[in-house]
Amino acid sequence: MTRWGLLTGWGRTAATGMTVLSGRDDAALSEAVRNAGARGILARGLGRSYGDAACNAGGAVVDMTGRDRILGWDLAEGTVRVEAGVSLRRLVDAALQRGWFLPVLPGTGYVTAGGAIAADVHGKNHPAVGSLARHVSSVDLLTADAVVRTVGPADTPEVFHATCGGMGLTGLILRATLRLAPAPSAWLVTETERAPDLDGLIARLADGRGYPYAAAWLDLLARGGTTGRGVVVRGRHAARGEAPVGPAPARRRPGVPAVVPGGTLNRVSVRAFNEAWFRRAPRRRARALASVPAFFHPLDAVPHWNRLYGPRGFVQYQAALPFGAEPALRRLVDRVAACGHAPFLGVLKVLGAEAGGPLSFPMPGWTLALDLAATPEIVTLLDRLDELVAAAGGRVYLAKDARLRPDLLAAMYPRVDAFRETREQMDPRRVFMSNLARRLSL
């Protein structure tokens, strides 16, 4: 089935028209690749990349969500084989029923396995387990010559690592084998505590104390001595006897309506929310139990939450800064707090060692993600943040990006030319293309 669609990323900005193909059997997809037009073809999953990575203006995208089967479990080896269109949410639910878990979970469960590999997603436990690429045994990749190849980190390392984090530009990911981690329970033991400022937040995040999962919410409107204040939440899988048997009851809140007036999220409403959220958190460490969805994916309980920013949409800005660049992190937070806009979301996490991919995002250090309403005024702010991040040896996350200047790409991703060389060898005709690839000359 073929249709024409006007699509955006999750940020709902810069809608562009493209042909949408169904993710049919391998033979039909091979034929689609052979017949790709001048504007190319690209895989598209559940549309949760925030910017333009899963859009292909004037070309074609393949809707992979129909290819969503779990093909088989090898519980002796701790692996699962899946089609690329299966969501991580469904995969986690099925794994937990068998006493297993995905080692890496991003901030939403509504990501396909193929999209997660293409973005080389990371989670709240990155220092302990790395990004998803470390837990992928093999990928079935439909390449530009319309042949399906199985690639892995041992036998085809260059292609494999260009694919993990390569934003779909090496081919269509059809299937993958993922390694799992044992999970004694569908619950997590959590600790929550306040931090009065950014220094306190950094110190508390660095102190894991046996909790592999950790993230901090920041109040990005706080100024003066409270700049960067926030709430740190840590977690670990509950052992048998520490939690109820079975999963928690599903909680789903009312969805956001299709039309939301612009300006609903403003400095007054966000400031009130931030104050209430901060005061609600305990001053000292407090333990509790949380379900997997509540701990990892709280926003998934609010359908269409991205509509809260109104018809103009929003930009999620996520940057990584290396250890030692904490002064740059403070300047970034200061600039956002002083910018006059109202960032609704601010999340700080610790990152560990880099993966092998030239376009993989994580690096040892800190990563800050924030949401801003898409207005003409924020362009200058984000350009200045990009320059600050690049000068400090950091980078922005391409899966979230919608507007990075191409002249800063090499400073942020010093191995980008290695990616381009691999792509040139695999796809000299540029069969696989996206708006992101055109904008950054990938």
Structure, explained:
The protein is of the alpha+beta class. It has 13 helices and 19 strands. The strands form four sheets. It has an eight-stranded antiparallel β-sheet. Strands 5-6-10-8-9 form a five-stranded antiparallel β-sheet. Helix 9 packs antiparallel against helix 10. It is globular, with a radius of gyration of 21 Å.
The number of distinct helices, counting runs of at least 4 residues, comes to 13
| Biggest pleated sheet | 8 strands, antiparallel
Q: Report the uncertain regions.
A: none
Spatial separation of the terminal alpha carbons: 30 Å
Strand order, main sheet: write it out: 15-12-14-13-17-18-16-19
Radius of gyration: 21 Å
* Beta strand %: 15-25%
User: What is the overall shape?
Assistant: globular
Into which percent range does the helicity of residues fall? 10-25%
Overall mean pLDDT: 92
Record field, number of beta strands: 19
Which structural class do you get from the secondary structure elements? alpha+beta
